């Protein structure tokens, strides 16, 4: 693999995980302040749903940014975005689902190709 390939993977990780943090940080702050209210799109309860969303939108993007267990860390954001697109926004137009599907696509690529050379976890 070339250096350009590794920089491309780093750019992909940083941009999509950084943008995902913009959604995850407010939910994380609500969680640590004791606000457990959230929607329950898959029927597991609003509190557990909020915990899972914070893992998918806050914890995992941080791990992906630093490149720690990147492929494994990409799975919760993929699931979260697919739930958002196909369950939470099931009755909405494609335009409404587009952002969630774009995030899911990017995290699928990250899960398939890994972190690249610029990561703290290397094989």
Write the layout of secondary structure elements.
Layout: H1 3-32, H2 46-66, H3 70-73, H4 75-88, H5 94-113
Helix pairs in contact: 1-2, 1-5, 2-4, 4-5
Overview of the molecule:
The protein is mainly alpha-helical and 123 residues long. The chain has one domain. The chain is 72% helix and 0% strand. The chain has helices at residues 3-32, 46-66, 70-73, 75-88, 94-113. α2 (46-66) packs across α4 (75-88). The longest helix has 30 residues, at 3-32.
Quick rundown:
This protein is mostly helical. The protein is built from five helices and no strands. Helix 2 crosses helix 4 and helix 4 runs antiparallel to helix 5.
Count of DSSP H/I helices = 5
Distance between the termini: 15 Å
Number of domains: 1
Strand percentage lies at: under 5%
Query: Using only CA atoms, what is the Rg?
Result: 15 Å
Computed structural class: mainly alpha
Secondary-structure element pattern, one letter each: HHHHH
Mean of pLDDT: 95
Q: What characteristic shape results from the CA principal axes?
A: globular
Task: Give a quick account of the main beta sheet: strands, pairing sense, barrel closure.
Answer: none
Number of beta-strand segments: 0
Give start-end ranges of low-pLDDT stretches. Answer: none
Instruction: Work out the helicity level.
Output: over 70%
């Amino acid at each position: 693999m070339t250096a350009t390939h590794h920089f491309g993977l780093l750019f992909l990780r940083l941009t999509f995980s950084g943008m995902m943090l913009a959604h995850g940080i407010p939910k994380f702050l609500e969680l640590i302040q004791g606000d457990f209210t959230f929607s329950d799109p898959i029927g597991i309860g609003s509190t557990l749903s909020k915990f899972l969303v914070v893992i998918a939108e806050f914890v995992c993007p941080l791990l992906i940014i630093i490149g720690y267990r990147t492929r494994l860390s990409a799975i919760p954001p993929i699931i979260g975005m697919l739930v958002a697109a196909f369950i939470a926004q099931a009755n909405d137009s494609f335009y409404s689902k587009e952002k969630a599907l774009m995030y899911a696509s990017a995290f699928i690529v990250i899960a398939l190709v890994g972190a690249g050379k610029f990561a703290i976890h290397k094989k």
